[in-house]
Design goal:
Blueprint: H1 3-24, H2 28-54
Helix pairs in contact: 1-2
Length: 75
């Protein structure tokens, strides 16, 4: 699993965890703390993902034929 997949997976998990904790919260104050925590965690992960995206070049699915390297000729 690459870093971006992990971040996306964790964002989904955070949403699920938030819902579960909110369902068991007994007061508005507790709900507020839960929402604050999970909003902060989500924002931090999204910022990390965006920062990483700025430093990663896109990957082409198909490279032109001239970029294919014959490894036996590299020696």
């Amino acid at each position: 699993m690459n870093t971006f997949s992990y971040i996306e997976k964790r964002l989904i998990e955070l949403g699920q965890e938030r819902k579960a904790r909110l369902a068991h919260a007994s007061s508005d104050q507790e709900k507020s703390v839960i929402n604050s925590f999970y909003s902060g965690a989500k924002n931090e992960l999204e910022l990390l993902r965006d920062e990483l995206m700025n430093h990663v070049t896109p990957v082409d699915d198909e490279l032109p034929e001239k970029h294919i390297i014959n490894h036996s000729e590299m020696s």
